[in-house]
Amino acid sequence: MVAGHFGFAALAKAHEKAAPLWALMLATVWLDIVFVPLVLAGVETLEPVRGSHGGYGANIIHADYTHSLVGACMLSAVLGVVALYRWGHRAGIAVGAVSFSHWLLDLPVHRGDMPILPGNAGSLPKLGFGLWQLPWAVAAIELALVVVGGWLYWRAARSAAKPDGRGLWPAVVTSLLILFGAALVLFLDVTQILG
User: In sequence order, what DSSP letters do the residues of 1-50 get, joined into one string?
Assistant: First the structure.
């Protein structure tokens, strides 16, 4: 759900002016950024799903630290505190909340592979509603998040531009990057679904 995460970050930027867009974009994939070195170290893993053709849900993700409920809260809090010191209280809350939104957006799409406690301590039931098993539904949700997020970002950036038009060009470029970048990710995912 990469494109959907970026769409949500753009949506958040439309409402929070103090946090830079790049920080919100980083925050929305923060859990995955931390996940990558843990995968490379063998601490977290990916298990291919039999019969999948790539794209959405091609792997069961054993991200027992980064994508556990408590782990996501802790990682989001750390990033939020960094943002708080850099851009202030509101931006810190926004960056932390956008980071945690990653877990919330993953919950409906992941199979039951997201533990509650880091390392799946206590062997509690793992969470995830498995919407990835309906890839077209996930693509539609992602597309909606991208379009709504990009549009709301565009509206907010346009209203923040100076009356003489200064500041409008970066808003246009950023909105187009959000929309086209997310559309590219969606295209790649959908073409993998088609085989």
Answer: -HHHHHHHHHHHHHH-SSS-HHHHHHHHTHHHHHHHHHHHTTSSEEEEPT
